[in-house]
Amino acid sequence: MEKQGSAFGLHGITGMLVATVLLLSILGGLTYAAIETQQATAQQSYEIKDPLGIKMIGSDLSNEAHVVVHGAPVGGDTKHQYQFEK
């Protein structure tokens, strides 16, 4: 009896080429996203308001209210409490 082939059974050179193309496409997509994020972040500047009001010891995010970032938020960060100005 002959063994039935599987639609997902790729062996040898074909499987290697599919895996290589898949990994290279993932690498290209992540590289593109990293470059876009880096370019958007490079356009931002920041300033510190009321530096004497910054506490040396406090909760993790309490001092972030003193940071004003000039530009738009990048990457959908919602955890931090930075003030954004355009």
Got a strand count?
3
Strand content: 5-15%
Helix content: 25-40%
N- and C-termini, Cα separation? 72 Å
Strand order of the largest sheet: 1-2-3
This entry's quaternary arrangement is: single chain
**Tally of DSSP helical segments:** 1
Class by alpha and beta content: alpha+beta
Low-confidence stretches: none
Shape category: elongated
Largest sheet: 3 strands, mixed
**Overall domain count:** 2
**Radius of gyration over all CA atoms, rounded:** 24 Å
- Summarize model confidence as the mean pLDDT: 81
- The helix/strand series, from N terminus to C terminus, equals HEEE
Quick synopsis:
This protein has 86 residues and is an alpha+beta fold. It contains 1 helix and 3 strands.
